[in-house]
Amino acid sequence: MLTCSTGAWPSPESKKKSSTSNTRSWPMTNLFVAYTLAFIIIFIFTWLLISRQSRLEKKLDELKQRLKEKS
Amino acid sequence: MRSKILGILVLVLMIANLYMIFVFAPNEATMGVIQRIFYFHLPFGISSYLSAYLLGFASIMYLIKHDLKWDRLGASAGEMGILFTSMSIMSGALWAKPVWGIWWTWDARLTLQFLLGLIFLSYLMLRAYLPEREKKATLGGVFGILAMVDVPFNYLSIRWWRTQHPQPVILGGGLDWDMWKVMMVSFCAFAALYAYLLDRRMAIARVEEEVEYLEHAILAHD
Which of A67, B6, B17, B186 could join B196 via S-S bond, C-beta 3.0 to 4.6 A? Predict the structure, then answer.
């Protein structure tokens, strides 16, 4: 079983850059994918909410019209 | 009007947030750039907890008062909960792979967060399955309370048990001051986003109720 990481938590980078961090593409790719996915999902959710609301409001207007005609 | 104001506020705060995250925030010494996922990952997690508490509170209030406005709040919180729980798991996995070398592990925190997502999903599925409004609200309320019960175990799991997930940072005193500033802006941006989405979803719930009422009124007329 993997043990929990109790090492140093976020602190500013020292002036000496790690020689390996620039060569690995995983962190940058994952960072880019994470933020892109986050924004895409939030936009889709928001768009779904807005379109659902406008569809329902249209239906509400139609129903009010129908009820008006009947009465 | 309120929706528009909230929407503009979200836009402004998110732009400021992105600037703070990618320009202002310092690089973390051991994890490097990947640590910047933290500024979204933590607000996603907190938003999922907030959704659970809103859902639980709304469920309890409905069971006491039988006022359908609480059921509207619960349903809205449930949908938000699914969104933010999934996002916290997604961002966590993308952070974990380069740092831990794995996408996922069944440790206490991750499992309880996954369970929280399943509770939200079950709540929404139950509501979709039941046709009667009152039954939907009453039975759904049980899942709402379950979601609320999950949160303290979820939050304290990293203190109680040996987990892969790191120890607390915000309340553990381990965050650099510049990173704190970025985190505060992130919290503000996500608070505005949550308020905006909740407001939109509650408006939909109100219109749905009106539509249902008018449909019954037209049927009665016929």
Answer: B6
